[in-house]
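Protein modeling request. Please complete all fields; requests missing the sequence field cannot be processed.
Requester role: graduate student
Desired output: 3D structure, token encoding
Chains: 1
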Amino acid sequence: MNRVAVRPELLRWARNRAGRDVASLLKPFPTLEAWESGDVQPTLKQLERFAKATRTPVGYLFLQEPPVERVPIPDFRTVAKEVAERPSPDLLDTVYLCQQRQEWYRSFEHATGKEPLPFVGSADLADDVEQTAAVMRTVLSFDVEERRRIRTWAEALRRFIERADTLGVMVMVSGVVGSNNRRKLDPQEFRGFALADDLAPLVFINGSDTKAAQMFTLAHELAHIWLGKSGVSDTQAAWVPNHEVERWCNRVAAELLVPLAQMRGEYRVGGDLRAELNRLARHFKVSTLVVLRRIHDAGGLSRDELWREYERELKRLGSLLRGSGGDFYRTQPARVSKRFARALFVSTFEGRTSFTEAFRMLGLKKMSTFRELGHRLGVGF
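Delivered output (381 residues):
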């Protein structure tokens, strides 16, 4: 039996990188402890299986020392208020996949003669937050008065995504890596990221997060697009980030969703907080998390009170979170963005993109599924 020389520290690195301990891998790899001590070497097939189990490119295991991996876009994440050091394989693979989709879509738009989108990179950190948010609301056609006619804030979130999509931003909302339901994304690691581009701007929202948190994340990442600055974030409505870019995007996001002047006019000082949260969430058609942030901004809550109430509300909303499930033909377009999916179907049926490439980027395996998805999107043949 031919065995391959692999450094024990690389095996330990791959295991730790995947967030696995030895015990969790002993069943498929009974001699793992001997591999990591250097007493026994794995076979090539065993090593390939180990690489797959730890989501590690197999070539990495033949290096002289563990590589230093970084997210390929600016990383604004913090964990316990410290800069995050190591991205998970799930985050890395998600960013890489979205970059591939963006590159394809940019080429598609370029080939059709699409003009650059004027709003991408149109803002600056020195710009007034209220004015920037007002412009964004107008360009997105997402003003407060229109939202008041929508039945619930959850419906307003869907409308928000649709408006961004119509404007030219690919909005991808998914709680898993690609189409792999066994690789669930962790909202504690990241809540979203933006890939700024004047032809193919892309926003990714971690669908494992609560719907309530997703609304603020979308507004925050759109602020990144307006700045023309890509980045991965884990920010929340209650946070005051240390980084200037994140701090500005948070302020713009809060103002975009709930203009402070209107909040001050609507907020009933001294009223029951729970009643006010529910009433103002209905009025502005935003989540109660955003309302809490704006009550604080309006002077109704101290910083400590905001944190306490925010954590309490986050816990309550988290208990209501359910698995995505549902109709595949409704969830898949949300995962890849309807704008991207429609363009890919058109290009494929016109013969400009291979079915193999289309299947890979959509995470599909069967032609019947591909055709039905196209039919549901109104671009089937």
